[in-house]
Automatic annotation (TrEMBL):
Its main location: nucleus. Residues 19-45, 52-71, 112-121, 581-598 have a biased composition (Basic and acidic residues). GO terms for molecular function: RNA binding; rRNA (cytosine-C5-)-methyltransferase activity. Residues 1-150, 177-203, 577-598, 624-645 are annotated as: Disordered. This is Nucleolar protein 2. Residues 289-577 form the SAM-dependent MTase RsmB/NOP-type domain. One of its GO terms (cellular component) is nucleolus. Belongs to the class I-like SAM-binding methyltransferase superfamily. RsmB/NOP family. It comes from Maudiozyma barnettii. Transmembrane segments: none annotated. Residues 72-89 have a biased composition (Basic residues).
Length: 645
């Protein structure tokens, strides 16, 4: 399983900006190539016609084929050679000692990029590096001002106004080297392209697909992964221009079937999941998606604005030897970590709750939710609390966030994060969220970050490749639909600014995304989809494999690892426009609470000062606890050194 990944432990991936810029440049190149190749087609067609099966021609074919194969393997050899060079270089770096890098790389040379990135940072932080060699702890603090200058150049004083400068600076850093890399890559691509064009002209296309005998032999044992990969690329090429490149007598289905088998062999998916994911994209984009799943996404952290500012946090982490940069201009709280001399999950800043390790994609549904101060918000499936704590921070610890999760065990990590990050406006509860309208309703906003199949996070959980079955894509969407209806029925349509429901998953499967949203639109005509407000993301599908969805489903947003270098993700935002016929109680939550309080008082369950703290009564417990804590630290509570009460 995961045969490719097994061989392909990657070094640090590129930054989001690098990734995006590269995607744009690539799209441009493809466009240019398409233009060129459409001119070539006419030539090719006529040359194809000329290919009568004379002996002379066949000899010529063989000769050309050999020639091109030699070139191809030479090209590969060169590539592998350069990869080896990288590897050696990396071995110098202790942290990446064990990182293998295969010769048969995907087209994005991530190692090279990340190395370039690193050296760029090294250049940029020349002052820092010089200082580092001489620094002892004291100097580190004495020289705080110098460091401040350097970090300030990355993180402007006023983050609201400093984003552009910040981006410029990073762009300036990146530009020259990434341009060089791009040129090299473009040259390589050009060379490969020429070889393929030559091969197209001289090679009968049927060669791409194995013969019957070859198929039989392939079934009898493990295959050479390099030739499987070559065939994947060639088949994708044929499928992208089947009319011109498809061999006579071979159907498109034959190519697709072979390609899917090769994808399973090379990347380690079950045939079922490979096909499901393949169907989401064009063949070439599907290949990019599968490739991107072989690579872990960048490590990212979210600044906890309840405790610090991103600029200050970055300063502290840089001082500890963390190499970082802001994620992108769509977030003011995210930082991408390139490498670190300290464990990122155990720094004093981490323990003090100044940040949380959080995938960049996880910021998106909270940004879409757009929490306001003093609102009542429900996070229906909240553990371990990455999004709850972000919501709480955006509300500046005002109002109330109900953080619910059906899994009691998982609420432990939820509570731990809430405590560490200092979220004091949060109530943790443990219900099956389908019960929610009955428990309490009338929320201003609800986030449903639904349990899902995880097809968007294969990069970090490779087991998804083989563990997901057809049954999962029936059962999970069923639960998601029930949860979404429950979310809709628990929101107050009369909320002043809210009445909002955000639905998100870390799956790219249409059954869990657009189909669930479409179901909710059908079942609850009192909601409509609205813009998510997210500046990145691809439009949701309005039709898929013969199924049509409501046109507004286009307002939902999809994220893929190969397009944004974030986990695969889906976000939909609803506005509730009227009460649900299914609302358990259409009164607002406050009215509901008042009603409940009245009833409870009538029944004598609670009295006026219920839940008030009795300070006198509590004092002895507080003192006892202080005493115990001093004893645990080995301090005699009665000694003069003990802190005064
Ligand atoms: C994708 S995770 C949530 C991640 C979380 N929002 C965060 O950002 O840290 C989905 C969660 O849904 C919970 N869950 C599953 N079924 C549920 C249900 N019926 N009601 C409430 N929570 C449920 C799971 O225990 C899991 O913690």
């Amino acid at each position: 399983m995961g045969s490719r990944r097994h061989k392909n432990k990657q070094a640090a991936p590129p930054s989001f900006d690098e990734f995006q810029a590269k995607q744009d440049r690539k799209a441009k190149r493809i466009e240019e190539r398409t233009k060129r190749s459409s001119n070539d087609v006419t030539d090719k067609k006529s040359s194809k016609k000329q290919k009568t099966a004379t002996d002379d021609h066949e000899k010529q074919h063989d000769h050309h084929k050999e020639d091109s194969e030699n070139k191809h393997s030479k090209h590969k050899h060169e590539k592998s050679h350069s990869s080896k060079k990288h590897k050696k270089h990396h071995n110098d770096d202790e942290e990446e000692e064990n990182h293998e890098f295969p010769a048969d790389l995907p087209e994005v040379d991530l190692e090279e990029l990340s190395k370039a990135k690193k050296s760029l940072f090294d250049d940029e932080e020349e002052v820092d590096e010089d200082l580092q060699g001489e620094f002892d702890m004291e100097q580190e603090y004495e020289n705080d001002e110098d460091d401040n200058v350097q970090v300030k150049s990355m993180f402007s004083d006023d983050e609201d106004f400093g984003e552009d400068e910040l981006e410029d600076l990073n762009a300036a850093n990146m530009e020259s080297l990434s341009q060089k890399l791009d040129e090299e890559e473009a040259e390589e691509a050009e060379q490969a392209e020429q070889e393929l064009v030559q091969a197209n002209q001289t090679q009968p296309r049927a060669d791409v697909l194995p013969s019957k005998e070859e198929e039989e032999m392939m079934g009898s044992g493990p295959q050479d992964l390099t030739s499987v990969r070559t065939r994947i690329i060639e088949i994708v090429k044929v499928l992208e221009d089947f009319k011109t490149l498809g061999a006579e007598g071979r159907s498109r289905t034959e190519y697709v079937d072979r390609l899917l088998k090769d994808i399973c062999e090379y990347f380690g998916y079950t045939p079922f999941l490979a096909e499901k994911l393949f169907n989401l994209f064009s063949p070439s984009e599907a290949l990019e998606f599968f490739e991107a799943n072989e690579i872990a996404r960048p490590i990212t952290i979210r600044t906890n604005t309840l405790k610090t500012r991103r600029r200050d946090l970055a300063q502290s982490l840089v001082n500890r030897g963390v190499n970082l940069q802001p994620i992108g201009n769509w977030t003011k709280v995210g930082l991408q970590i390139f490498d670190s001399q300290v464990p990122i999950g155990a720094t004093p800043e981490y323990l003090a709750g100044q940040y949380i390790l959080q995938a960049a994609s996880s910021f998106l549904p909270v940004i879409a939710l757009d929490p306001h101060e003093n609102e009542r918000i429900l996070d229906m499936a909240a553990a371990p609390g990455g999004k709850t704590t972000y919501i709480s921070a955006l509300m500046k610890n005002t109002g109330c966030v109900f953080a619910n999760d059906a899994n009691k065990n998982r609420t432990k990590s939820l509570i731990a994060n809430i405590h560490r990050l200092g979220c004091t406006n949060t109530i943790v509860c443990n219900y099956d969220a389908r019960e929610f309208p009955k428990v309490i309703g009338g929320f201003d906003r609800i986030l449903l970050d639904a349990p899902c199949s995880g097809t968007g996070v294969i990069g970090k959980d490779q087991s998804v490749k083989v563990s997901r079955t057809e049954k999962d894509f029936i059962q999970i969407p069923h639960l998601q639909k029930q949860l979404l209806l429950s979310a809709i029925d628990s929101v107050d349509c009369n909320s002043k600014h809210g009445g909002v429901i955000v639905y998100s998953t870390c799956s790219v499967a249409v059954e869990e995304d657009e189909a669930v949203v479409n179901y909710a639109l059908r079942k609850r005509p009192n909601v409509k989809l609205v813009e998510t407000g997210l500046v990145i993301g691809k439009e949701g599908f309005t039709s898929f494999r013969g199924k049509n969805f409501h046109p507004s489903v286009k307002l939902t947003r999809r994220y893929y690892p190969h397009t944004y270098n974030v986990d695969g993700f889906f976000v939909a935002k609803f506005q509730k426009t009227g009460p649900s016929p299914h609302d358990d109680n259409q009164a607002s939550a406050k009215e509901k609470e008042a009603l409940a309080r009245e009833e409870a008082m009538e029944e004598g369950i609670i009295h006026e000062d219920f839940a008030n703290f009795d300070n006198k009564e509590d004092e002895k417990y507080i003192n006892k606890s202080k005493k115990n804590s001093l004893l645990k630290k080995g301090i005699n509570p009665k000694s003069s050194g003990a802190p005064k009460k």
